[in-house]
Amino acid sequence: MSTPQTAGAARQAAAAAIDAQGTDEAEWQQARLPDHLPHLVLPTGPVVVVAAHPDDEVLGFGGNVAALLHAGTAVHTVCLSDGEASHGPATTSARAQLAARRRGELAAALGELGDLPAPVHAGLPDTALDEHEHHAQAVIGELLDTVGAALCVAPWEGDLHSDHEAAGRAAQRAGRDRSTPVWSYPVWMWHWARPNDPRVPWHRACVLPLSASVIDRKKAALARFTSQLEPRGSGTAPVLPAQEIAHHTRTFETVIR
Asked: How far is 136 from 79, CA to CA, in rounded Å?
């Protein structure tokens, strides 16, 4: 188990990688991942999609949520935190306002993808999900049981962002307890990694091609996250600048199994 000092250092290193200049989308396009990775087929049973923050589920798997809904497959979502820390240090009141705004953005975004049930909101603290993994696992497991999930999709536990990794670990444990397969979607990996990066388990990666219509739905959904797309004030760049959105509006999505 990591000591607090070690965990703190790891978080700082991960934050530095995420804040650093990322890999240009053109480099990923040149890698032609759909030509080199296996293609997956979507399941026909209920699917539960897990997010650490409002927007993760749309960034990583929104196109396939739209495709599943179009095919008549039930999709349910669970958001573990409200993303209230995305703009850095702030007063309790300001964080509460941002949390409410982000819940509203998520509802609007999911509506762009199709007819989805309201998300389950766990309300766990943003940037501290690794301290609440057992609670997260229980919330995910309860939803898996309630809907009889055939598949769980969650953030990749190697994404470097501590919340994404905690959400991924919690989903993996909940899935194992029920023999429910779990697919993992990367978010920040496209920023800090590069094609053939040895830190990425490419042997477990697969792609799911997207039709033009579901890509349009995903783009419309992403546009709803205005708090993450606009500058955060005092000259601070958006959480999701255009070069990051480019990673998530491809003609396919990638999962790690």
From this structure: 10
